[in-house]
Design goal:
membrane; mainly alpha; Polysacc_synth; 86% helix; transmembrane; Poly_Biosynth_Transport; 537 residues; cell membrane
């Protein structure tokens, strides 16, 4: 792989990670501005918006990038430009149609989501319509990002992601604060401004991409002078290829929002049916869909970022019918996910009380749900990775099957489990749905890739044993600290989390090095890291 491509991949990955981290941590000040009611309203709008935006743009940057780079490699630059010009028109149309669809079905979604009290339906409708405007801009932005990535230019995508997120978050926090504290507005008005921030952020990201376009226009036009002009591909064939590339990413991208949508349509009314009032049900909904969910997906993002880098190698080994290499790459993918995710979710579950206090406020419900929800992060990570592997071995059609089975189970079990276990019932239904989906994916991988799981089982047991020892050591530390520090205090919770995290990480990684597990998984990377550490020490 060329140094230019490596550098570009690093820049894009860095931009994506910064964008995701900003998207995770802004919920802390936002919660303190609008409270649980505001966060519940925010979730009511963002879950359907995420589904719509995933369908409208899911996989577009990667699909367009793959298409353009394919034809650029054979000096057919005009093909990519033809796709880009027609794509802008199509993305404008699909974006506007998506906006209209979400805007006009907002009352239906609101009625399905709330306790059907007229005021609640009106509030949810308002915030959904506020966020729907972003659908006009985001698809166009996705196409431009894909165009740049297809030319091995990752900087524009990375910078635009970060700018979009910074502008959006600034508008979310400033807008909500001004509405509530300077304009004496309502929570609904504050959250409407916050959700409309998605449109403002998208405008910011789009302007940065337009700036890059004008900056690099002469270079891109010069490429057309070297076009061979031997390939004449129709728009119909182009978009057929794009859909084939993009479809798997759409289904993977909407998996989690669809599970959350089941909660949105069933949770509030079910909680009210078992004795909760509107406020209590909405507070619990905010806890499960916004507050704890934002924390749970942190280890998922870290694990999948590492493991998904192995997918191109898996694809190559499968196409080349290189069985030893394929098995090695699959071993690495499965083991890296477990190695990075398991200790993180165990730590998150153990430290649920101080972590929830640190991010939001002390809450028995928040602590209980986070403690239950944290282990589900392993399932989120494995679904993403197994779905990516299915794409790598060209069996992505089974992703649709596994997702539908998982959703069917979630839909069937959500209401009865909520009635039995209350808020944790929704978590349990999600876990069961994901277990079913992952089981199907693993069966397909075993069947079509002829992959033996023996090594993963053995190494998995070693990871579990090391994590158990980490759990004991960290648990003892936690008990000692909570004897004189209170997890109900934000500052003291910070001290508890920091000390326990250092102790837990120290135990886990020292045992990983002593057992050689870290070397098995990361090889020379660990040697280089250790050499740098020794030099600095």
């Amino acid at each position: 792989m060329s140094s230019k491509l490596l550098r570009g991949t690093f820049i894009l990955t860095l931009g994506t990670m910064i964008s995701k981290l900003l998207g995770l941590f802004y919920v802390i000040p936002f919660y303190h501005i609008v409270g649980s009611k505001g966060q519940a309203l925010y979730a009511f709008s963002y879950i359907p918006y995420t589904i719509f935006i995933s369908i409208a743009t899911g996989g577009i940057p990667l699909a367009v990038s793959k298409f353009i780079s394919k034809y650029n490699a054979i000096d057919e630059y005009a093909v990519g430009r033809k796709l880009f010009k027609s794509g802008l028109i199509i993305m404008m149309c699909t974006g506007f149609l998506s906006f209209l669809a979400l805007y006009f079905i907002a009352p239906f979604i609101a009625e399905m989501s709330t306790s059907k009290v007229e005021a609640n339906v009106k509030d949810v409708t308002t915030v959904i319509r506020a966020v729907s405007f972003a659908l006009i801009v985001v698809p166009i932005m996705s196409l431009i990002r894909g165009f740049f990535q297809g030319h091995q230019s990752m900087g524009p995508s990375a910078v635009s992601q970060v700018i979009e997120q910074i502008v959006r978050i600034t508008f979310v926090l400033a807008g909500a604060f001004v509405v509530l504290h300077f304009m004496n507005g309502t929570i609904t008005q504050a959250v409407s401004v916050a959700t409309f921030a998605a449109f403002i952020g998208a405008i910011g990201g789009l302007f940065s991409l337009i700036w890059y376009w004008y900056k690099r226009r002469s270079y891109l036009n010069d490429l057309l002078l070297h076009d061979k002009g031997t390939v004449d591909i129709s728009l119909k064939e182009m978009y057929k290829e794009i859909v084939i590339y993009a479809a798997p990413f759409v289904f993977v991208g909407i998996a989690n929002p669809l599970f959350q949508l089941v909660d949105q349509f069933t949770f509030i009314n079910t909680m009210i049916s078992i004795g909760y009032d509107d406020v209590g049900a909405e507070t619990a909904f905010a806890v499960i869909t916004m507050q704890t969910h934002k924390l749970v997906i942190i280890p998922v993002a870290l694990a999948t970022a590492f493991s998904l880098t192995l997918v191109p190698s898996i694809t190559k080994a499968f196409v080349d019918e290189d069985r030893p290499s394929l098995n090695h790459q699959l071993n690495q993918a499965f083991q890296v996910v477990l190695f990075l995710t398991l200790p993180a979710v165990i730590g998150l579950s153990m430290l649920a009380e101080p972590i929830f206090t640190l991010f939001y406020e002390h809450s028995e419900l928040g602590t209980e749900v986070l403690r239950t929800y944290a282990p589900v992060a392993i399932l989120f990570a494995y679904f993403l990775v197994t779905a990516a592997i299915l794409q790598g071995i060209n069996e992505q059609r089974f992703t649709v099957l596994s997702l539908l089975v998982g959703l069917l189970l979630k839909l069937s079990l959500n209401i009865p489990l909520i009635k039995i276990f209350e808020t944790n019932g929704a978590v349990l239904a999600t876990a069961i749905g994901y277990v079913a989906a992952i089981t199907i994916n693993l069966f397909v991988i075993k069947t079509y890739a002829q992959y033996p799981f023996k090594l993963v089982w053995r190494r998995g047991l070693l990871v579990v044993l090391i994590t158990l020892l980490m759990f004991v050591g960290t648990g003892i530390t936690y008990k000692i600290l909570t004897a004189f520090l209170s997890p109900a205090s934000s500052f003291q919770a910070l001290i508890i989390v920091l000390i326990c995290a250092i102790v837990g990480a120290g135990i886990y990684f020292s045992l990983s090095l002593k057992t050689k597990l870290a070397y098995f998984l990361f090889g020379q990377k660990i040697d280089r890291l250790m050499k740098k550490f020794r030099l600095r020490s």
